[in-house]
Amino acid sequence: MSEIKDVQIGIIGGSGFYSFFEEAGTPYKTIEMDTPYGKPSDPITIGELYGKKVAFIPRHGRDHRFLPHTVNYRANVWALKSLGVTRVISPCAAGSLQKHVKPGDFVICDQFVDWTDGRKNTFFEGPLCVHPSAADPYCPELREIAIEQAKKQGITVHETGTVVIINGPRFTTKAESRFFTNQGWEVINMSQYPEVHLVKELDMCPVTIALITDYDAGLVGDVPPVTHQEVMQVFKSNISRLKSLLTAIIENVPVERNNCECYNTSHTS
After folding, report:
1. Which of 105, 110, 114, 214 is catalytic?
2. Of the listed 42, 114, 216, 222, which one is catalytic?
């Protein structure tokens, strides 16, 4: 376990987002970590921006060797917590389920629907009986900051959105996608759960920035099947906008948490 402490902000990079400090020319350290749940997806890089220590980990590993259903989410989240992190920003590539949410748009999700199976999705495995709240899964304070900064940068941002998380690695059938669309949900992704809830279980604040890369298969009859190559191409073309937004969010995150209850998620009975 690393002896580095007092890291305030963690970033978990999604598909196509494998480094953060290098391109900016910001000094950083790379550390290997181990956790009670195994090793994180990759060594963690730690740098400083606007007087705040920031830790970055690529969710899928720098070589994208971990598919969404094989990511060790518990190890990644535990590692950030052990460094002292209190806020976690989780950008992700995502599909759109609604016509008004277009490729290239950003969505600051406020709800999720879990459609996964077989994933290790909690730190609470006994003997205490703990029932964490998931009613409001994303931090309202971080969401407000992300929305405000996206608007300042001229990004087309959707201030709310429900993300449905499918297991993967396959994409949806048209029938599945049409069902999700008909529920009124906006975003589809493979990695938000259990990541966001694990962050909350350890009393950290999560915010998700979903970068829309495609329309999902059942949204319109003429939509061609989505491919991983297409997703990566659109994400790559928007990565500079995403990194600029992340930097602005980091600059404007207050040292103390003022407008959330994320530190009080879990209740023991």
Report:
1. 214
2. 216
Dist CA 90 CA 48 (whole Å) = 18
Percent of the chain with pLDDT over 70: 94
Q: Is 168 left (phi over 0), alpha (psi -120 to 50) or beta?
A: left
DSSP state of 262: G
Distance CA 76, CA 150 (A): 26
Of 185, 232, 238, 215, whose CA–CA distance to 96 is shortest? 215
Q: What is the dihedral of CA 87, 18, 61, 81, to 10 degrees?
A: -10
pLDDT score recorded for residue 43: 97
Distances from the Cα of 206 to the Cαs of 110, 258, 268, in angstroms?
10, 14, 21
Given a contact cutoff of 8 angstroms between Cβ atoms, the answer to whether 72 and 12 are in contact is no
In the residue annotation, 216 being an active-site residue is answered as: yes
Q: For residue 97, which amino acid is it?
A: L
- 34 labelled catalytic: no
Gap between the Cα atoms of 62 and 84, Å rounded:
23
pLDDT, tens only, 127-180: 888 888 899 999 999 999 999 999 999 999 999 999 999 999 999 999 999 999
3-class DSSP state of 78: helix
pLDDT reported for residue 2: 52
Question: Does domain 9-260 bear CATH number 3.40.50.1580?
Answer: yes
The rounded distance, in Å, linking the Cα atoms of 38 and 76 is 9
